[in-house]
Amino acid sequence: MTLHLIKLCVGIETLSDLAAWQSRRLKEKKRDGETQELIHVTRHAPRRAAEILDGGSLYWVIKGWVSARQRLLEFRPVMKNGIAHCALVYDKELVAVEPRAHRAFQGWRYLDPKDAPPDMAIWTKGADLPDALRRELISLGLL
Residue 66 and residue 122: Cα distance in Å, rounded? Predict the structure, then answer.
């Protein structure tokens, strides 16, 4: 059974900010001769890695809203300041999802597929609206 992870996207205001940040990061890696991959380093490795790598994604919460996902490709052990960590390696394709309110939390959490929002390709109401307006209309039950 596939399983997902969900994580807060700290320091990012909008989905387009996240896309721009990731694009800049990939360009920096290319310039520096590094492997062009997107990685987020976290303290703990998921214990249910096999389920996640069976088609699971990393869902990003931006400003209190689940806004996007990226397919998880690998969990790689890394050392940071002499302490073992886990690098979450995820796909470059950023997929917008139906915005869904989500409270703040620390670290990452497992996300059951039945609780994951559908991709925007499936859900298109208000897709042409600015993020803030679309979120407000959703919270009012108008979208």
Answer: 16
- pTM for this predicted structure: 0.84
Instruction: Single out the residue of 48, 90, 95 nearest to residue 73, CA to CA.
Output: 90
Q: What DSSP string describes 72-93? A: EEEEEEEEETTEEEEEEEE-S-
Task: Please tell me what DSSP assigns to residue 46.
Answer: -
Give the whole-angstrom CA distance, residue 103 versus residue 83.
Answer: 29
Q: Are 104 and 8 in contact (CB under 8 A)?
A: yes
Q: Are 15 and 130 in contact (CB under 8 A)?
A: no
Identity of residue 32: D
Residue pair 132/63 in contact by the 8 Å Cβ criterion: no
Per-residue pLDDT reduced to its tens digit, 116-142: 999 986 545 555 667 777 767 766 666
- Cβ-contact 4, 113 below 8 angstroms: yes
pLDDT tens digit string along 31-69? 999 999 999 999 999 999 999 999 999 999 999 999 999
Distance CA 129, CA 59 (A): 21
Mean pLDDT of 27-34: 96
